[in-house]
Amino acid sequence: MKYYRLKNEIETVTILYELDRLYQIVVEKNDEIPVGSIVHGRVKKIDKKARLTFVDIGESEDAFCAEKTGLKAGDDTFFNIRKTPDEEKFYTVDMDLKLEKNSSLLRIIPKKSGEFETKFEKFSSIVGSRDGGSDGTDSGKSRAEKNASTKSSSGKNASTESLTPTETPTPTPTQTDAVEQSLLEKWQQIFSMKNTLPIPKIVCKAPTKSEKIIEEQNAELSSDKDEVVVLLKNGKQNFERRVDLEKGYLYVDTLPYMTIVDVNSGDYSEFFDSVLNRMEVNKDAMKKLAEIIKLRNLEGVIIMDILKLPGKMNRELLEYLKSEYEDINFHGITRLGMLEMTIKKTGGEKITAEKISSLIGTLENI
Fold it and tell me: Burial, 354: exposed, middle or buried (Cβ in 10 Å; 0-12, 13-18, 19+)?
């Protein structure tokens, strides 16, 4: 995996690719606080009717915390950036703090007594959606089987320690490893500075989305802009409204809060049984859509008008999709043959054909 970066005063574009195909394009605003960062903020006001706590984190607009914090105006404490501004102009924060390193996650949960409960968790990060036909080694497994396999291979179970402002826990080797210990020490250092930290201030900046992908994929920095231009030109068709498949084609319409996909078989007819033909086109369409979701950074609700199948085969298709695409939440197939799915929102910018043309133009003029 390789990556190429373009940066101007406003944004940074990271283009990730492997061999002869685009993998993902991530656009990030240079002045944006990454999700997962910890800030030392001060409560500005509390709207009891709306159950919102507004917090000064140093931005032009106050962030809001959509939970009962138990704080009052003027109080200062630590907040986690949960969501960056998208359509709205506000950051969303919460008090369930998180520190990450490699595959370890330290959660710091405030308690009413003023103490903090710390929980160590192991997790396995999967970037984007898997291709439907990767290597075939586990394509027959259900999602539950794969999750169980991931859980069993992710190390020991989570352990819990309580931390008060005056306590310094001394974990035993069986309670934590070196990475988890370093996370705990990092949190203790932040907490010990609470009374001297400026307000507002970012006290722990999380890695950006592109940095996480680069680390997880062990990607190497590339300086070959001509190679990237060729990849963008060859892959531009994946960003058009009509996207051709090996078996048929798609129409992809991206609306502000929803994506609608229409599946068409075209002239495809490999089997004598038309139902089998439609099943193959539906599978091929979903394979391409999973690639498009990653490339265009689609999220939220996606409705796919699949080719009509009998009830039993609809269920077979749904089980197949759930086992193949773990990062997509499939909710069912309606009577009208609409496949309903959702993608977790990250607030990233959607990549359009116009954006690809702009990137190509910028690279050619460098």
Answer: exposed
Confirm if 291 and 134 have CB atoms less than 8 A apart.
no
Q: What gap in Å lies between CA 2 and CA 15, rounded to an integer?
A: 8
pLDDT in tens, 71-93: 889 999 999 999 888 766 889 99
DSSP string, 4-69: EEEE-SSEEEEEEEETTEEEEEEEEETTPPPTT-EEEEEEEEEETTTTEEEEE-SSSS-EEE-S--
* Number of Cβ within a 10 Å radius of residue 302: 23
Q: Which two tokens stand for residue 214?
A: 């680069």
Count of CA atoms in the C-beta half-sphere (13 A) of 331:
11
**At 325, phi and psi to the nearest 5?**
-120, 90
**pLDDT by residue (tens digit) across 321-347?**
999 998 899 999 998 889 999 998 777
Residue range 20-28: mean pLDDT, rounded: 93
The Cα–Cα gap between 194 and 1 comes to 41
Verify cis geometry, omega within 30 degrees of 0, for the bond prior to 85: no
Taking the C-alpha atoms of residue 32 and residue 35, their distance in angstroms, rounded to an integer, is 9
Residue 126 one-letter amino acid: I
| Nearest CA-CA partner of 15 in 7, 318, 96 | 7
Tell me: pLDDT of 149 over 70: no
185/181 Cα distance (integer angstroms):
6
Which amino acid is residue 197, in one-letter code? Answer: L
Closest by Cα among 297, 243, 244 to 268: 244
* 52: nearest Cα among 64, 63, 43: 64
> What single string gives the DSSP state of each residue in 83-117?
E--SSSS--EEES-EEEEETTEEEEEEE-TTS-EE
